[in-house]
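Justification of computing resources. Each target in the renewal requires a structure prediction run like the one illustrated here; the chain below, 438 residues long, is used simply to show the kind of job we budget for.
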Amino acid sequence: MQHISARLIKSLSFSSIPGTTLQEIASSRPKGVAKVVLKKGKTQLFKDGSPMVYSGAVDRIIGRPPPRTGDIVLVADGTEKPIGWGLYNSVSMFCVRLMQLEEEATRDPPCALNMEKLLEARIDAARELRKSLGLPSANTNAYRLVNSEGDRLSGLIVDVFGDIAVIASSAAWVEKYKQEIEACIRRIDEINHINWRPSVEILKEEGINLSDLKEMRPSACPERTKVMENGIFYAISLEGQKTGFYADQRENRQFISTISDGQKVLDICCYSGGFALNAARGGAVNVTGVDTSLPALELAKENIVLNNMDPGRISFLRADATEFMKGALSKNESWDVVIVDPPKLAPRKKVLQSALGMYRTLNSLAMQLTKRGGLLMTCSCSGAMTQSGMFLPTLQGAASMAGRKITVLRQAGAACDHPIDPSYPEGAYLSNILLRVL
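Resulting structure tokens:
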């Protein structure tokens, strides 16, 4: 008993003394902490902040028994000196998701090797950041609270829709720490409901048994809700795509409202009508939205009513994007402003080449439907496309196919509540480009 008490006192004292090293804190733990040792020449990448330790960067693992998925481990250089700590995965290509570097742990020992404390600190920091960005506000209550690597919680996304928090899990550790994450979110005054949305295919690669994945939406959590973004109301289905709403395009949708006055606008792949509604609010004389999803179009039509818009000026059609545009071309139709925001066409780098052709075809048709001198806002939410730098060259190829000339007026990404860690550029996924089409 005295031995256990001494251990406990030692652990508590180490966790509260500034300047305590990770190795000292780890040594104070009764069972110790396994150590993932990096290969020679790989250390600097992670010292510079890259949060994902790939299995190919690992030389050996020290610890008996070996760590299990979700366990806290030290990450060390070739001399076995810790450079940080993170969460281990025995199956994933991401062997460790780094949570703190040695210097950070020394400055903030209560969070060192303590996932519960770290979650509290990181989620609180994310909340304070959103407050500084003016979110939520009187006219916007749909926003991203936690953006994975951008908020230093790789694999965790939290979107807030009014009083509902939707948590998207894409890492094994998120599943392990469900209760702790939920407790942190419930501490936020305005949150009354939580809906868990596990990313099944990604979690399969993380070694998670799919039978263990149960969406945690208590019976009290509604299946639908209503939010406001920049003064426009949206009906949201929590059974819908992604977390239910694409908050990443918020600033781009608002921009559309500034260039739509007196214009005829076409919104291809409109989902629940975000761009179309902003165009109508901005004074467009006629707006047409096109999508293949019947549930999405039902939401879009509901949004017309929610915002007291004239159904004679804004309408939504169910059609395949390519077939609709070909049909419109055959009837010599054209629009002043065209928006193309397709689903993720290149979910992986290995399919990027085939996706380039789809992007080229879609945009070539859209350019032909844009009046000469008109504007085309075109998007890609495929990280593989954005990170490849091939989107603009693909658009130039589309212009050549269409026999049109384009100039770039604006380039944007996700809204400011979707921060990106520059040491992990793979976190950049959204491209939004405004073109003048001649």
